[in-house]
Amino acid sequence: MIRLVAGVILFNLFLVTIQSVYGRNLVSNSFKLPSEVTEFMDGISEDDDDVGTRWAVLIAGSKDYMNYRHQADVCHAYQILRKGGLKDENIIVFMYDDIASHVNNPKPGVIINNPHGDDVYEGVPKDYTGNDVTINNFFAVLLGNKAAVTGGSGKVVESGPNDHIFVYYSDHGGPGVLGMPTGPNIFANDLIDVLKKKHASGTYKSLVFYLESCESGSIFEGLLPDGLNIYATTAANAVENSYANYCPGGNPPPPPEYDTCLGDSYSVAWIEDSEIHDLRKESLKEQYLQVKNKTELSHVQQYGDLGLAEEHLFLYMGTNPEIDYSSFTEESSSPSFSTPVNQRDADLLHLWHKFRKTSDGSPRKLAAQKQFMDAVSHRMHIDQSIELIGKLLFGIEKGPKVLNAVRPGGQPLVDDWDCLKTMVRTFETHCGSLSQYGMKHMRSLANICNAGIKQKQMAEASAQNCVKIPSNPWSSLQNGFSA
């Protein structure tokens, strides 16, 4: 490419010299630039060396059919990137892969992300599935450390200094934490440390991170510094839930045979926006504003090096050459959701519809009823345990105020992240797993650390509150600690 352009420049100089001698416009009358060079001169060549290689890491951090939407989001994101020109060797997919063939899936082998959508599961690489979807593998992949990977395809981001990296994560989360299907979970400080190491290695030109989870802003708030050439957007700010969509009973609902949500508000917004715009022309900032406008119940945020938002999405996602973008209008670009569902309640919605649809008196009806009651019981146990521990540590009146305190904007969740992990392990030792629901209480545990409580005090309060660990499956005793 460089030699071709240099040759054309020299040849043009030759033509200009001849023209000055003979007084003839040889360029316009007898010479046309090759299309590749014309595109280069127009500044839109898709083969421009400055683009480098596009890399993508896609992660669904959950498992189980009730979390169908997270794997559906990731599969749909893969289809966008693949049609945009990224090669499978440069797209690395993490997902538990228990949805497509799940007994509850009404279309075995098929995953959809929209009530009227096509199958998004076909062709998705099975890089890291099942118990290989771990924080250690994710970090090793991002850092390009093949030696640290366990299981899976072994693919890692082998990027160079001119390359662009796109990371997309979809799952449950909580203040300062992101879920993983195989523990432990991802803590914000550890993720930021990995991003700093990646930057220090000099192995990318810029990195974009799209994050779908409750309290997703807390992952970057007060933690992601400027100067790393990283631009991040999140589904929610640091103190609020994100929302699921295309849910049973919603508008629009999934097909009647589905009793689970098909997608998430933020994720569906950016994915469907990418399908209807020419990504050579749409910037990161323009997509951020579109997604922010369409994600109604949570506040989409942006962090990091905001100057990168002026770059075109094409640098990270490519663009689909088969689409006639002129046929789309902003009116047709919605998704429009009138009944989003709190991500933390989507599992209860699934279990309720599963119970409602089964025949009265049948074994399946009784099993569905037990599942629903176990889920509610687990939630009550976690909520009451955290509340009582706070009162034991700080007093009946002061306890709730300490646990629910929110730090000013721009500050990280906690000063001592090791303390937070210790408090999580201490709670789970005595009271059972927090689980995906209990991640909502990470702020309370962080505030316990910020108040100067020691591990011994936390252990005594937890033991006094939790005489025994509940044995229902929502406590997930067999899954180990989440920190």
From TrEMBL:
<dbReference type="GO" id="GO:0006624">
    <property type="term" value="P:vacuolar protein processing"/>
</dbReference>
<protein>
    <recommendedName>
        <fullName>Legumain prodomain domain-containing protein</fullName>
    </recommendedName>
</protein>
<feature type="active site">
    <location>
        <position position="172"/>
    </location>
</feature>
<keyword id="KW-0378">Hydrolase</keyword>
<dbReference type="InterPro" id="IPR046427">
    <property type="entry name" value="Legumain_prodom_sf"/>
</dbReference>
<dbReference type="GO" id="GO:0004197">
    <property type="term" value="F:cysteine-type endopeptidase activity"/>
</dbReference>
<dbReference type="Pfam" id="PF20985">
    <property type="entry name" value="Legum_prodom"/>
</dbReference>
<dbReference type="InterPro" id="IPR048501">
    <property type="entry name" value="Legum_prodom"/>
</dbReference>
<keyword id="KW-0325">Glycoprotein</keyword>
<dbReference type="Pfam" id="PF01650">
    <property type="entry name" value="Peptidase_C13"/>
</dbReference>
<feature type="active site" description="Nucleophile">
    <location>
        <position position="214"/>
    </location>
</feature>
<keyword id="KW-0788">Thiol protease</keyword>
<dbReference type="GO" id="GO:0005773">
    <property type="term" value="C:vacuole"/>
</dbReference>
<feature type="signal peptide">
    <location>
        <begin position="1"/>
        <end position="23"/>
    </location>
</feature>
<dbReference type="GO" id="GO:0051603">
    <property type="term" value="P:proteolysis involved in protein catabolic process"/>
</dbReference>
<dbReference type="InterPro" id="IPR001096">
    <property type="entry name" value="Peptidase_C13"/>
</dbReference>
<feature type="domain" description="Legumain prodomain">
    <location>
        <begin position="370"/>
        <end position="466"/>
    </location>
</feature>
<keyword id="KW-1015">Disulfide bond</keyword>
<keyword id="KW-0645">Protease</keyword>
<keyword id="KW-0732">Signal</keyword>
<dbReference type="InterPro" id="IPR043577">
    <property type="entry name" value="AE"/>
</dbReference>
<comment type="similarity">
    <text>Belongs to the peptidase C13 family.</text>
</comment>
